[in-house]
Write a structure and sequence with these properties.
Radius of gyration: 22 Å
Strand order of the largest sheet: 1-2
Largest sheet: 2 strands, antiparallel
Shape: elongated
Order of helices and strands: HHHHHEEHH
Structural class: mainly alpha
Length: about 190
């Protein structure tokens, strides 16, 4: 009698319809490649709209053209542009602007892209800078507390703006936007 441990057999490999038998890369749609110079020129056009006083047009322009096929540098430039636009818009203008975008054609997708940028911006704002990681103090709980003296210049203000936008966006688009963003494979 052969000593085969039947509990260690991976039965998913035997099923032809199993997710283990097809490449996961096919789940996300192919995005056309975008160069950093294209993103930089788009960023300058968007900033020109912003300087001209058309903050809604600048926000739409940034959110309608996300650089899904770009490299990390291109995505960082676009993120910085979107955050700059969000910081320049007054809090009293947020809800009416989001409502107009939501009611327009393709508005749900545009607001989903905004939600992606909000989460990406929040993740960048919460990373400790290299200056602040040197002063860690152990706590009685076993965790370390990072002191951010002098290192997080303006990070709290940016986080506050992003959280305000998140609140208003969930009011307008609903919690479905969060679910769509979390399940979308495009970054």
């Amino acid at each position: 009698m052969a000593t085969m441990n039947w509990r260690t057999i991976n039965i998913d490999l035997l099923d032809p319809e199993s997710p283990a038998n097809f490449p996961i890369g096919t789940l996300s749609p192919a995005a056309p490649p975008v160069s950093a110079t294209d993103v930089q020129s788009l960023s300058s056009q968007i900033k020109q709209l912003l300087r001209g006083g058309d903050s809604e047009g600048a926000l739409r322009g940034a959110l309608e053209n996300p650089p899904y096929g770009g490299d990390a540098a291109a995505k960082e430039v676009h993120l910085a542009t979107v955050v700059e636009i969000l910081q320049s818009i007054k809090q009293s203008e947020m809800s009416p602007m989001l409502s107009r975008i939501y009611d327009s054609e393709g508005g749900v997708e545009i607001l989903d892209v905004l939600m992606k940028y909000l989460y990406k911006g929040m993740s960048h704002s919460s990373k400790p800078s290299s200056a602040s990681t040197g002063s860690m103090s152990p706590q009685p709980t076993g965790f370390s507390q990072i002191h951010s003296r002098g290192g997080g210049e303006g990070g709290g203000q940016a986080m506050s703006v992003l959280l305000s936008w998140h609140e208003k966006l969930v009011e307008i688009a609903g919690p479905g936007s969060i679910v769509r963003v979390m399940s979308d494979r495009r970054t």
